[in-house]
């Protein structure tokens, strides 16, 4: 019997309507090298407003992860929400799988829109990409917000037992869940208080719609993230950075947040959201937005002269 209704596809349509209603339009840009980037971009870019780029993590497409934030941010920013490569409608035929390449593709699509300077918010994997943008394009990033992004992890951390999983392959099987049981495992470690009793038919539907396309390429993204990773190789970015972490994050434990704060020193501030796991955008959207707004929008007296002095939030 043919399927006549998909809850996931219907919800995806609702998010699409919500983004459009907030003032964004769906747009794809061919970068000319086998790479196509999909972005939700402002229907009208207002020059007097600063630009903010929201970068999603591994999971569903960008709409599912940023829907609660787009509308309130649109009043103060030109908001751009890209789908990273192999998510949504973005893809490449090139072999690169690093967060550095993802960062370059995001910046190239921003070039196509004529945007030169921006602030970036990245959640989880999107934080890896945002951090790389800040490292590679120092003069073009104003401020950076990293949400539960374990950019300071090292390959040896898994061997030392920092994570719930024991190997990269085990992590992949959970992060790219292909069965209802694996999806339940993912929800258990993603949320501080995961929803229970979701019928398998709903989970199967979500997997079918959101988790089967570009499966091999997504595996390679995760493998590239972990392979030979060392803290000593991580550049120290210079932009004012807000680090936000869920107190009970089981995917990227809070220790990685403290490690990143130590790595960046006085240039960064760490905020810990209580009673939250890894998916802070879903569990604590109002609190997450409050901290984002305080850092990105609310003015503070300048602490010293410089490129970022008018907006910098200090510890």
UniProtKB/TrEMBL annotation:
Domain AB hydrolase-1 intervals: 52-288
InterPro entries: AB_hydrolase_1, AB_hydrolase_fold, Epox_hydrolase-like, Meta-cleavage_hydrolase
SUPFAM superfamilies membership: alpha/beta-Hydrolases
Cross-referenced Pfam families: Abhydrolase_6 (PF12697)
Xref: Gene3D superfamilies: alpha/beta hydrolase
Domain of life, per lineage: Eukaryota
PANTHER family: ALPHA_BETA-HYDROLASES SUPERFAMILY PROTEIN, SI:DKEY-122A22.2
Protein name: Alpha/beta-Hydrolases superfamily protein isoform 1
């Amino acid at each position: 019997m043919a399927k006549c209704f998909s809850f996931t596809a219907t919800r995806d349509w609702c998010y699409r309507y919500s983004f459009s209603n907030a003032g964004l339009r769906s747009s794809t840009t061919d970068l000319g090298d086998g790479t196509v980037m999909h972005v939700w971009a402002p229907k009208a870019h207002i020059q007097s407003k600063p630009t903010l780029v929201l970068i999603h993590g591994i999971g569903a497409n960008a709409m599912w992860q940023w829907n609660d934030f787009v509308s309130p941010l649109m009043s103060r920013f030109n908001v751009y929400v890209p789908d990273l490569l192999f998510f949504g409608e973005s893809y490449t035929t090139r072999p690169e799988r690093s967060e550095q390449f993802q960062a370059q593709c995001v910046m190239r699509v921003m070039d196509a829109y004529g945007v030169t300077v921006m602030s970036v918010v990245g959640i989880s994997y999107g934080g890896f990409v945002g951090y790389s943008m800040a490292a590679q394009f120092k003069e073009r990033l104003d401020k950076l917000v990293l949400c539960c992004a374990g950019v300071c992890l090292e390959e040896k951390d898994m061997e030392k037992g920092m994570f719930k999983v024991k190997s990269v392959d085990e992590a992949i099987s959970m992060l790219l869940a292909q069965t209802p049981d694996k999806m339940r495992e993912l929800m258990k470690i993603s949320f501080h208080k995961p929803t229970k009793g979701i019928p398998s038919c709903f989970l199967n539907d979500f997997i079918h719609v959101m988790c089967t396309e570009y499966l091999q390429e997504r595996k390679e993204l995760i493998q590239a993230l972990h392979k030979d990773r060392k803290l000593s190789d991580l550049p120290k970015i210079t932009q004012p950075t807000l680090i936000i972490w869920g107190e009970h994050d089981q995917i990227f434990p809070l220790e990685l947040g403290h490690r990143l704060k130590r790595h960046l020193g006085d240039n960064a501030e760490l905020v810990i959201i209580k009673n939250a796991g890894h998916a802070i955008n879903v569990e604590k959207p109002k609190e997450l937005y409050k901290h984002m707004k305080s850092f990105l929008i609310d003015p503070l007296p300048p602490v010293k002269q410089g490129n970022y002095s008018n907006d910098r939030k200090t510890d």
